[in-house]
Amino acid sequence: MIGAPYTLAGDSGVDLVVIERRERDGMGLGLPEFVHNPENRCPVALLLDTSASMRGEPIAELNAGLRSFQHHILSDELASLRVELSIVAFGGDVRMVQDFVTVDELGPPQLEASGNTPMGEAMDLGLRMVEARKAVYRSNGIHYYRPWIFLITDGAPTDGEAWQHAAMRMQEADLTGRATFFTVGVQGADMDILREISSPNRPPLMLRGLMFRDLFRWLSASVRRVSMSRIGGETLALPPVHGWAEIHP
Amino acid sequence: MSWMAALDYRQGASHRRAGIPCQDFGRLALPDENTVIAAFADGAGSARFSHLGARAAVDAALPWIRERIADAPGLRGAVSRLSPERLFDGLTNTVQSAIRETANDNRLSLDDLACTLTVVALAPNGVSVAQIGDGIVVARLSHQDYTLLIQPDRGEYANETSFVTDPDAADRLRVRSLEGPVRFVSAATDGLAAVSVDNRAQTPHAPFFSPIDLFTRQSGSALEVHDGIRAFLASDRLSAKVEDDLTLMVCGWRGLDG
Fold first, then answer.
1. Which of the given ranges, A16-20, B2-6, B12-16, B18-22, has the highest pLDDT on average?
2. Cα A67 from Cα A18, distance rounded (Å)
3. Cβ–Cβ contacts within 10 Å for residue A244, how many?
4. Residue B159 and residue A1: Cβ atoms within 8 Å?
5. Alpha-carbon gap, residue A143 to A137, rounded angstroms
């Protein structure tokens, strides 16, 4: 609280006091004290294929992409308070590598590639984590934006029928607005299956080469936009993807 | 004894950077020495021409409420003899028609001009408000605490609310009256809600409102109040907290008691 007590000023001092009041943010009797409301949250869940076929350069580029995502979010003060990231890796088994944290608390995980591609289980885990996070927000009185779930794969699901059921649940979540679901195929991905998995709202995108860093730069720019918006993710204009994605018919 | 009332709005930092016009708009008037009316609107970020909608909504709402009150004035310092439901009956239609006209003139759809709307009417012994959307209205009666007159209407997500242009807007209109000796009323668009209302308890944050309250009551003129809130909306300290467009309306009763 700053500001000269206006009422103590004599007649001769009124003009001077008024000028001083203006210099001091308008309210001469002290500035309003803001409520310490936690920032709105913008949850992003990454479902990352770490199967054996990602070994070598692909997994190295994916790790580099994650670091660049973190870097870009941290460069934006508001987004770094609002964007929360979680990571599910599927390769051999399905692991929650990172539960939701704001990006400053994220130690960039070193993902390693091995095993097959249990994509269905990963989608189910991602969806459960998102719903659980929303419940935490609600019980803490925190406002939040529509969660983003981002699936990246270079293969095809290996967990039998599980992926078909999981894909149905994911599409339903997308169509009813419980989350926004994106799918990205990396070289070698079965794009026909990915088209079946993806939401009718958002057909799959094909990553150009191994441009993970460009993908994650786009993702960070997009969630920064979402995290400052007053409108639903559905109608929000996102930056163009042509820098890193090939448009698939 | 008189009202010290002012309203101002300001483009948010994010809109300034992105070259998006200020989508907030508001006006305040004193039809007579006892009555203050104000209307403000917050244009939807998703609607390209919502700044036009906000202006059309306010320009339609303010004369409309002035006439409603003039037609049914209140007794003993009340805003109107009508219940708030009847007082604001017809507001949504009037405002929608005005926005539709602006949309037609510009060959746009109603949705292109989507905006919220808050209307406040106060007299020495009562305050009535109507709202579609997520603005906030806070009042203090003599010797009482600050109360939130209307809860912001929010969807599941932080960025969702209802708009006066929605097909079901008439059903989403919420009204409220408070009777008693009004000492202070402040209203704002969503941009200020995060720093002035406790989310979890859904109560006004008194340390936010009491300095404004004191400032308003001790100001020498409405012009001074206006200068004060204008400078506050432009202050670095507020800009560091809030990126959105801002509207703030304050009104204090400068009388003999608190």
1. B2-6
2. 51
3. 23
4. no
5. 7
Domain boundaries, chain A: 1-33, 42-246
Please say whether the dihedral angle defined by the alpha carbons of residues B152, B158, B162 and B163, taken in this order, is positive or negative: positive
| Number of Cβ within a 10 Å radius of residue B256 | 5
Mean of the per-residue pLDDT values for chain B? 93
The mean per-residue pLDDT over the stretch B49-72 comes to: 97
**Residue in A6, A25, A37 nearest the CB of B194:** A37
Q: For residue B42, what are its two tokens?
A: 């917050």
Residues of B in CB contact (< 8 Å) with A are: 14, 44-46, 154, 156-160, 190, 194-201, 205, 207-209, 211-212, 214-215, 218, 220, 224, 227-238, 241, 243-244
Q: How far apart are CA B100 and CA B166, in angstroms?
A: 12
Q: Which amino acid is at A196?
A: E
pLDDT tens for A156-183 read 999 989 999 999 999 999 999 999 999 9
Cα(B163)–Cα(B154) distance, rounded to whole angstroms? Answer: 11
Q: Are strands B182-188 and B197-198 parallel, antiparallel or unpaired?
A: unpaired
Distance of alpha carbon A187 from alpha carbon A248, whole angstroms: 13
DSSP structure class, residue B239:
H
CA pair distance B80, B74, nearest whole angstrom: 4
Predicted model pTM: 0.78
Contact B208 A34 (CB under 8 A): yes
Residue A246 is predicted with a pLDDT of 80
The count of structural domains within chain B is 1
Taking an 8 Å cut-off on Cβ atoms, the answer to whether A37 and B158 are in contact is no
Q: Which domain holds residue B34?
A: 2-254
CATH of domain A42-246: 3.40.50.410
- Asked if A35 lies within 8 A of B195 by C-beta distance, the reply is yes
Residue B104: which H helix or E strand, with range? helix B91-105
Closest Cα in chain B, distance from residue A228 (Å): 8
Give the mean pLDDT of B109-117: 95
Measured CA to CA, the distance from residue B120 to residue B130 in angstroms comes to 7
- Supply A8's token pair: 């103590």
A56-85 mean pLDDT: 90
Contact A32 B196 (CB under 8 A): yes
The reported pLDDT for the residue numbered A25 is 55
Q: Which residues are B252's β-sheet partners?
A: B4, B184
Judge whether A36 is closer than 8 Å to chain B, CB to CB.
no
CB-CB under 8 Å, A25 with B231: yes
Q: Residue B232: give its domain's CATH number.
A: 3.60.40.10
